[in-house]
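User: structure tokens for this one?
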Amino acid sequence: MMGQNQIVDLVLPTDNDALFSGGGPAFYQYIERDYKGVKSTPWEGGRYGFVRDPMETSAGVVYTRFHEGIDIRALHRDGRGEPLDEVRAIADGKVVHVNPVPGYSNYGKYVVIEHHWDGSSYYSLYGHLSSIAAQPGDMVKRTQPIATMGYTGSGLNQARAHLHLELNLMLSHQFEAWYNTFFRNDPNHNGIYNGMNLAGLDIAQFYLALHKDPSLTIPEFLSREETFYKVTLPKSRHFDLLRLYPWMLAAGSRNEKSSWEVSFTRSGLPLKIEPSDKHVAQPELSYVKKSSINYSYLTRDVVSGRESSAHLTNYGKQLMRLLIYPD
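Assistant:
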């Protein structure tokens, strides 16, 4: 068993530390955008959050595509323009997954490291690597080199080489069986470390918050996040989230109620678990923040409809079933 670090002692994964002097174009890798025939290269597209795929709505322009991590631009290149930046572990942990085949993921070649803080596991993910210097099972120390920055993965070129970095919670250890049931025509090469099973927190804001308060924990940080929707789930002995992140359970909660109500951010990051008296046979939307914009644009197509007609999409129902699979 790994040591239980109570302090989340994070370092940035490359030499680029411009996040702490304002971030912006010095830190984030720009994306290429073509919106209504206008081409642009906004660095904002490299940030965490709903920062991509603008769409015109009655309430103005909304960004419908979520970016689960941050894209850190290269500082060092050779004479041919190839990125040279060393990629390092952001904290002590164990390498749990290495994907060496670019075509097996949108992340290209990537590495996942498991970290233990306060009795729960969190997962840092390093994507678009050119070469990897770590193996599954390796115990790594904070700042230890694990790879070299690259531009593997779909849609990248040498000019846009960067490191895609995430810090994630895991949704379920039953992911592979669930995935093979619902997506059997699209092979999963990455086991439980598939991006669909990893929900990313706002790692840039977390770095900045830790800079101000080094004693900050992940549960404390996430307690500031806004709940955008809630889903009531049938009771299940396979409800992994509760075992993985017991801190999500509201203080003083009692177990013997009929179902669980889980609170989520817009992006689908789970924040809180509460017992509920409601009887449900399948996952059911129980709350959504009021908005005049179609919810499918705001929730990565987990919730659809508007205001009183809001409901889980078919994809949303499948995703929520992952939390209690195979029940």
